[in-house]
Amino acid sequence: MDLGFLPEDRRHGIILAKNELAKAYHIQTAETIYSAKKKCPDLLLVPAHHEKYTAVCERINAIYESYTDLVERFSIDESFLDVTGSRHLFGSGREIADELRRRIREEIGVTVSVGVSFNKTFAKMGSDYKKPDATTVISRENYRDLLWPLPIEELLFVGRSGAAVLREHGILTIGDLAMADPKSLSFFLGKTGVQLQKSARGEDLSPVLPVGHEEQPKSISHNVTFDHDLVDPAEVMAGLTLISDQVATRLRRKKLYASVVQIQVKDVSLKVINRQKALEDYTCSTRLIRDTAMELLQENWPAGKPIRMLSVGVSGLSMDGAQQLNMFSDTAAMERSRRLDDAVDSIRSKFGKEAVRFGRNLGK
Question: Which domain holds residue 235?
Answer without folding.
Answer: 219-361
